[in-house]
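Hi C.,

You asked whether I'd gotten around to modeling the 189-residue construct. I have! Everything is below, sequence then structure, no commentary in between.
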Amino acid sequence: MAQRQVGPPPLDAGQAPTGQASEAPRDGAGARIHPMENCSIARTLEVLGEKWTFLVLRDAFRGVRRFEDFIAQTGIPRQVLSNRLSALTSRGILSKQTYREPGVRPRAEYVLTAKGSDVYPVLVAMRQWGDRYEADPEGPPLVMLHRDCGAAVLAHLRCADGHPVTSADEVTHRPGSGARLRSVPANEA
């Protein structure tokens, strides 16, 4: 499968790179790219952007709730798991609940919250990308099927009006209502 370029077209001979000289960076549609102080992607990576965090969440979506079961499924070191569960709980992604089996001291289990459940499409998209580009030659290690009909579960992008969005070239970026734009020195603007 041929890979196509995503983003702005390549520079012509003698053309200054975007963002240098006097021209501000522009997206593929020619709109100025605004530097943000409060990027949602950067903030999300602060919460989720670590391998073990995603593996804990992957297994939470598959029904794992208990500390020892997370270790058995992921191979995560105990202290790392403890730190990840604490972080996910403090951020409201997991809820720590107490359970007690007969004759055993009370223990904790970790249940996805509504905020945690909203991470699911991100994991589906990551799995889908991994299946396409990183799977073994024999195919993906896990197949996700819709329980009701048996069809494969896939992530698809759509705009708020329901139109499919199939590439970054179809998207333009504008500052949102909560944007805090980072000032750019005059010699960089």
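If it helps when you're writing up: The mean pLDDT is 85.

Thanks,
B.
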